């Protein structure tokens, strides 16, 4: 969700965003919280200084209960030193300082690092490493900050991600469930439906009055057990007979239900069957 | 050539290596751990917050009003006047981020000044100052 606004940094890496995807946050998979593949997490150096090793795997750090292997930092470059195989510098983000190391294999790497100067604001995407108790970042990319509003943005993102990762477990659940449904029903509409047959479909949201009623009546006809039992479903004329409503209104309703996937046409354009419990 | 210049003890040699390589080896061959330094953070601050941090390192954004020979006068993100000592001159109405020591009396002794240009959202930055000093202080200090 953020990746399109960023300078492409996040999009390079798995997930493309900071937040754990909804798929990895399902309540059944208990271990996904700490082990799910993460995107790049924006962090302050202060947060990294307080990160600790996760129990099972000594190579990973945990911040706010979430694995922080790929991180994004923003700060000032200090003490830049170029060597044959890599470039090192200290990044000061105002909350602390951390050493950053960027291996230079390709000419493009060399060019990327050549423009980085001491005193410059940069965004670092990299992998958080620990070696003999000392944390440092092995950078995938080091880019100068061009729009300085990124400074504000980065730290607000740090706060945002921190809040998301530390909010009480389960608080995000109802939201995740509704958005995973094909339709997002308005609760009261669902209740109306439950009177006749149990079904997971919603009524047309926003539509009111008689039009909604016709849609509902038509769908109810298709969901009668007798209708469900027939391979070819119902002919349009049969629906007209049952309901005594003008055929053009019935066709409108059928067209709507086909569009949203409640029913489908079977042997020809006049036969339709409910997709529910078919 | 190193040996020629420095007829030296091993400590000097280690110092030389550390300087040239950016490493942090101790004199006894141990790699000094925990080089991460969070001891002198620069607190996000506006004019109001600077009062609380006299003598400490802060970072503030000001919009340049005038340069008075080594002293820069600007408007803080919360709309007050801030004096920045020891800063180079910057173009008028540019936003400048100053990192330095809060001097009391609405002034900062600059260590690092960065020109942020003319397009900078001071309101958002001011909001960040408040978050970073309030509820979410522990991410920053």
From TrEMBL, chain A:
Region (Disordered): 13-35
InterPro entries, per database record: NA-bd_OB-fold, NA-bd_OB_tRNA, RFA2-like, Rfa2/RPA32, RPA_C, WH-like_DNA-bd_sf, WH_DNA-bd_sf
Record's compositionally biased regions (Polar residues): 21-32
GO terms (BP aspect): DNA replication; double-strand break repair via homologous recombination; nucleotide-excision repair
Keyword field contains DNA-binding: yes
Gene3D superfamilies named in the record: Nucleic acid-binding proteins, Winged helix-like DNA-binding domain superfamily/Winged helix DNA-binding domain
Family of this protein: Belongs to the replication factor A protein 2 family.
Protein name (Swiss-Prot/TrEMBL): Replication protein A 32 kDa subunit B-like
Gene that produces this protein: LOC120249852
UniProtKB/TrEMBL annotation, chain B:
Any one Gene Ontology cellular component term annotated for this protein: nuclear lumen
Subcellular location, record wording: Nucleus
Molecular function (Gene Ontology), one example: DNA binding
Claim: Chloroplast is one of the keywords in the record: no
Keywords: Nucleus
GO biological process, one term: DNA recombination
Family: Belongs to the replication factor A protein 3 family.
Protein name, UniProt field: Replication protein A 14 kDa subunit-like isoform X1
Organism, as annotated: Dioscorea cayennensis subsp. rotundata
């Amino acid at each position: 969700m953020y990746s399109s606004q960023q300078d492409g940094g996040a999009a390079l890496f798995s997930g493309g965003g900071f937040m754990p995807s909804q798929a990895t946050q399902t309540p059944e998979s208990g271990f996904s919280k700490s082990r799910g593949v993460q995107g790049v997490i924006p962090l302050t150096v202060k947060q990294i200084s307080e990160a600790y090793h996760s129990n099972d795997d000594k190579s990973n750090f945990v911040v706010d209960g979430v694995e922080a292997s790929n991180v994004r930092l923003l700060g000032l470059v200090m003490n830049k030193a170029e060597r044959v195989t890599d470039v090192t510098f200290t990044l000061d983000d105002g909350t602390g300082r951390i050493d950053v190391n960027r291996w230079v294999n390709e000419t493009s790497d060399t060019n990327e690092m050549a423009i980085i100067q001491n005193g410059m604001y940069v965004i670092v995407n990299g992998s958080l490493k620990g070696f003999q108790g000392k944390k440092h970042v092995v950078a995938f990319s080091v880019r100068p900050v061009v729009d300085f509003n990124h400074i504000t943005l980065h730290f607000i993102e740090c706060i945002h991600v921190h809040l998301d990762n530390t909010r009480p477990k389960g608080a995000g659940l109802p939201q995740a469930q509704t958005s995973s449904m094909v339709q997002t029903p308005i609760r009261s509409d669902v209740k109306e439906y439950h009177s006749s047959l149990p079904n997971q479909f919603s009524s047309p949201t926003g539509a009111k009055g008689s039009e909604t009623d016709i849609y509902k009546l038509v769908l109810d006809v298709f969901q009668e057990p007798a209708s469900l039992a027939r391979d070819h479903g119902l002919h349009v004329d049969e629906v007209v007979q049952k309901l005594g409503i003008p055929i053009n209104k019935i066709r409108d309703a059928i067209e709507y239900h086909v569009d949203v996937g409640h029913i489908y046409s079977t042997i020809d354009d006049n036969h339709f069957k409910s997709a529910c419990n078919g | 050539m190193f040996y020629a210049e420095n007829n030296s003890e091993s400590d000097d040699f280690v110092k030389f290596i550390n300087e040239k390589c950016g490493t942090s080896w101790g004199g006894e061959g141990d790699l000094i751990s925990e080089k991460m330094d969070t001891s002198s953070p620069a607190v996000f601050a506006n004019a109001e917050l600077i009062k609380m941090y006299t003598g400490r390192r802060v970072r503030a954004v000001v919009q340049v009003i005038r340069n008075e020979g080594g002293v820069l006068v600007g408007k803080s993100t919360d709309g007050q006047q801030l004096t920045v000592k020891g800063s180079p001159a910057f173009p008028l109405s540019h936003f400048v981020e100053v990192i330095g020591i809060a001097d009391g009396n609405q002034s900062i002794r600059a260590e690092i000044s960065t020109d942020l240009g003319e397009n900078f959202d001071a309101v958002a930055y001011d909001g960040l100052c408040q978050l970073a000093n309030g509820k979410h202080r522990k991410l920053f200090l």
